[in-house]
Amino acid sequence: MLELAELSAGHLGENVVHRVSLTVAEGEAVVVIGSNGAGKTTLFRAVCGLLRPSHGSVRLDGRSITRRRAHDIARAGLAYVPAERHLFPDMTVAENLDLGAFPRRPRPDRRALVLELFPRLEERRRQRAGTLSGGEQQMLAVGRALMSEPRLLLLDEPTTGLAPKLAAGAYGALEALRRHGLTILVAEQQVPLALGFADRGYVLEDGRIQLEGTSAELAENPGVQRAYLGVA
Amino acid sequence: MRAVVFDGVVLGLQFGLLGVGLTLVYGLGGVLNLAQGQLAVLGAIVAAVRLDAGSAVVPAVITGIVVAATVGLVLDLTLMQPVYRRRGEDRVLLGLLLMLGVAFIIDGVLTWRYPIEALTLRIGGEPVDILGVRMRTGSLLASAIALGVGAILVLFLRYATTGKAVRSVIQDEEGAQLCGVSPATVRAFVFALSGGLAALVAVTRSMTSPVTVNAGIDFTILALIVAVVGGLGSVSGAFLAGILLGVVNTVSAHYIGTYITTIVLLGAAAATIVLRPSGLLGAGRE
Fold first, then answer.
1. Is residue A3 included in any domain, yes or no?
2. DSSP string across A10-23
3. How many angstroms separate the CA atoms of B26 and A218, rounded?
4. Which of A163, A196, A177, A156 has its CA nearest to residue A32?
């Protein structure tokens, strides 16, 4: 469903990610593991059009989306939830959700699905997004992304700033989304959680893919254990 | 006194519309449109020229508004493109300077081609009593139009899908893109809207006093003061500030003299910047 071929991107002519190739098949959950500064966010921004790749290509359903603009890619069925969430702070929860469906009108059954997944958002419907707690903001960011009825969901560190219990809850919600047939690509530092959720994973270090494999293979890899799983 | 305040409200509603256009364009793209007043006058002069040529009032006025909106749209799609590619202070400064240049050009061309042209719309009918004050029909119609258009604008931004898209870009441009909103399209639309609104204000002004070829700078300064006092980026703030400043304007003109009004208005803007830097209803972000 998503194919990156030799994708390079960065800022001011300086590449941060170098020739990254990666695939996500329909219905799959894939994780990109990497520490702070490994280039996960740059990679995702280049995929969803917020950053222009300097080299390589991105394909969605076999069609190139390499140089298309972010709003165009969003409408093509790829929803991105950035770590900083980028909600509309002065709008209500309901308005934020409605905008997720732009340019179409929000579909009631879709809204019901999102509110069923995140009942907290139902309670906070009329509250301004800027006044929500960190966990609620994360729910709203995912909920808003779902309103566009995407087929592929990209999440950048969905557990940023969440207490451990909430972080586990976030992955519980992602599991539920998978059962609805959504394809998911997630970048994560909290490796045990992510490997427990994903089918496959890639390890990104210094902007390059160093390792790839199924979640079980990665969990047993001595390098991964040392660097990310706290195994001596 | 009551009559003076009423006149102030009439004026203020129009100030508000003028300020809203400026504040929306700034909120979306960081461009301070210093040619806002010149777009207003351009619309008025186009309408006046059409009237001279024998056109009926409504088509002439609509032509003026459409021309101003189109010029706004073209400016956004051409001259403003390099501005939007910049960030932060660079963007604000370049936008400001380019629009100042546009203001001079529109002023120059209009003064050269139509040196003595002015738009005056005489609205017939007997004065009407409102709460014991005799109001001219011209003032009433101008207020009704400003109020109506202002209400439509507020409702549009609040409830319409496109209106929400406009607000989303003001609040978080990247978030808006991720929702499928194109900031470039929204900016072009609002630039055109703001040009059309400016021309509409010039038209309503001409119902009570002539709008001459060189009135552009006055409109621009008014729009700037209203937008600053209301809080750049705040629509309801611009209306509130417009009405307040309209009243301040007429009261000071009536009790002190017309010469003092610009000083009083600029004083109000300066006081706002000192006391409430983000404006009456400004969000205080950025």
1. yes
2. EETTEEEEEEEEEE
3. 50
4. A156
Q: What does pTM read for this prediction?
A: 0.89
pLDDT tens sequence across B200-224: 999 999 998 899 999 999 999 999 9
pLDDT at B284 over 50: no
Residues of A in contact with B168 (CB under 8 A): 88, 91, 99, 102
Nearest to B164 among A50, A95, A148 (CB): A95
pLDDT-derived band at B285, boundaries 50, 70, 90 = very low
Q: Report the complex ipTM.
A: 0.91
Q: Which residues of B touch A88 (CB under 8 A)?
A: 167-168, 171-172, 175-176
**Cβ proximity of B165 and A102 under 8 Å:** yes
- Whether A75 sits inside 8 A of B180 (CB atoms) is yes
The CATH number given to whatever domain includes residue A214 is: 3.40.50.300
Chain A residues whose CB is inside 8 A of the B181 CB are 71, 99, 102-103
Residue A204 located in a structural domain: yes
- Domain holding A208, by residue range, is 1-77+186-232
Query: Would you call A215 an interface residue with chain B, using a CB distance cutoff of 8 Å?
Result: no
Are A79 and B182 an interchain contact pair (Cβ–Cβ within 8 Å)?
no
Give how far A199 is from chain B: nearest CA, Å: 26
Q: How many domains does chain A have?
A: 1
Domains and CATH numbers, chain B: 2-117+127-275 (1.10.3470)
Strands of the sheet containing A29-33, edge to edge, are A78-81, A152-156, A183-188, A29-33, A200-205, A208-214
* A 103-142 near B (Cβ less than 8 A): 103, 105
Chain A nearest CA to B180, separation (Å): 4
Q: Kind of pairing, strands A152-156 and A183-188?
A: parallel
Domain for residue A201, yes or no?
yes
Residue A202 forms part of a structural domain: yes
